[in-house]
Amino acid sequence: MKLTRRTLHALSGALLAGLAVSAGAQTKWDLPSAYPASNMHTENLAQFVKDVDAATGGKLKIQVHDNASLFKAPEIKRAVQGGQAQAGEILLVNFQNEWPLWGIDGIPFLATSYADSFKLYQASKATLQKKLGEQGMVLLYAVAWPPQGIFTKKQVASAADMKGIKWRAYSPATARIGELVGAQPVTVQQAELSQAMATGVVESYMSSGSTGYDTKTYEHLKFFADTQAWLPKNAVIANKKAFDALDKATQDGLLKAAAEAEQRGWTASERKTGEYLDLLKKNGMTVYPPSAQLKADMQKVGETMLKEWLDKAGPEGKAVVDAYRAGK
């Protein structure tokens, strides 16, 4: 068959169109995170993006940018909201000043076990999803950090022992704890924590055994009071326009992988809690239970902060706390 110039032109146009459709069928997302590749949340993210690839038949590819390499921790939520990144991982308590309910899992001694922390998450989930929706975002999944304790240079027996020390704050709640125990709060995110301890900017802080190990805190601070004060959550969120632009099958694949990541993440977090404490001990840190006085002092801090939080959160916050307590 003899092909005319017009036929050849039509065929080449159809071929180019086919290539465009094929290229357009694969969507690429960027997902910034603030934590190193070895962190349990980042490891979970790495498995999540593999599962998304498999569940969507390669139609959605997600690139994780870990260790604050694309955006710093406080910038990630706005980056996702504004579409600079299609998805991101955030520490919810970081944004309590914007809306009190972001900080519900940072109230000391409200939920101190994995079981209670998960119940608190279920009680607050619908409210969190609604707020994210209003801000143009979608909740994919959330996973708790191990329980929070107190890292210090010297063993502490009461809140009075923390008076005047340089206290690392990474959220409004941790800053407020520092104020209530008479410490000097200094805002430092995890990516800068090692340097802050090495230079004496930070002498103490509250966080998980995971953070203590990741940042080699044992090289600078030698004591960890295992107060199990609260279990803050990281949430993986997506830009709603980017999510809505996916076809239904790709959305379903993404949400399936997210549900699996949430379940896997909670299980791993609980399992790793003991592992991290053992690693701290192996590296020369003294891990000890809080004294009766320290526990009583911190409980008092928790009661003060819950009252302050409820005053700010109003009926919306009270409804979530009531639902959580009713489910216990």
Name the features.
single chain, 10 helices, 328 residues, six-stranded mixed β-sheet, alpha/beta
Characterization of this structure:
By secondary structure, the protein is α/β, with parallel strands linked by helices. The chain contains 10 helices and 11 strands. The chain has a 6-stranded mixed sheet, sandwiched between helices. It has a 3-stranded antiparallel sheet with strand order 3-10-4. A two-stranded parallel sheet has the order 1-2. Helix 5 links the parallel strand 6 and strand 7. The longest helix has 35 residues. About 5% of the residues have low confidence.
**Strand segment tally:** 11
Helix content: 40-55%
Give me the Rg, rounded. Answer: 23 Å
Describe the strand arrangement of the main beta sheet, using strand numbers: 7-6-8-5-9-11
Contiguous low-pLDDT stretches (5 residues minimum) are 6-23
Mean pLDDT figure: 92
Distance between the termini: 78 Å
Topology:
Elements: H1 5-24, E1 27-32, H2 40-55, E2 60-65, H3 76-81, E3 87-91, H4 114-134, E4 137-144, E5 148-152, E6 166-169, H5 172-180, E7 184-187, H6 190-198, E8 204-208, H7 209-214, E9 223-225, E10 233-239, H8 240-244, H9 248-282, E11 286-288, H10 292-326
Parallel strand pairs: 1-2, 6-7, 6-8, 9-11
Antiparallel strand pairs: 3-10, 4-10, 5-8, 5-9
Helix pairs in contact: 2-9, 4-10
